[in-house]
Design a protein that fits this description.
The chain is an alpha+beta fold. It is built from 3 helices and 5 strands.
């Protein structure tokens, strides 16, 4: 993770994400990086990775992937409307 002013850059493997409140600052940072490196702008993070962002209290930002989570549930045939049932297990039981 790198930051300059209000712009944050997360890098992982061969991908990266810029974050800032102002799109102009992100565009400027992308141009600066393109001057010294071979990069390709894949567009908005939501379009590229399916990552949604939400502004939380205290200035925090939540990144989440609802479509990926839903796909995992679908692949596992997990019913989101199911209810849990109590399961009795002795406190001293060893589960393997």
């Amino acid at each position: 993770m790198f930051y300059g002013g209000t712009t944050i850059f997360y890098s992982y493997v061969n991908n990266g994400i810029f974050l800032d409140e102002l799109v102009d600052k992100i565009n400027h940072a992308v141009c600066e990086l393109a001057d010294v490196s071979n990069i390709e702008d894949k567009g908005d993070v939501n379009e590229y990775l399916g990552v949604k962002t939400a502004q939380l209290e205290g200035g925090k930002i939540k990144l989440y992937q609802p479509y990926l989570i839903q796909q995992i549930f679908t692949d596992l045939h997990f019913n989101l409307n199911s209810k849990s049932r109590p399961t009795s297990v002795y406190a001293y039981a060893t589960l393997f």
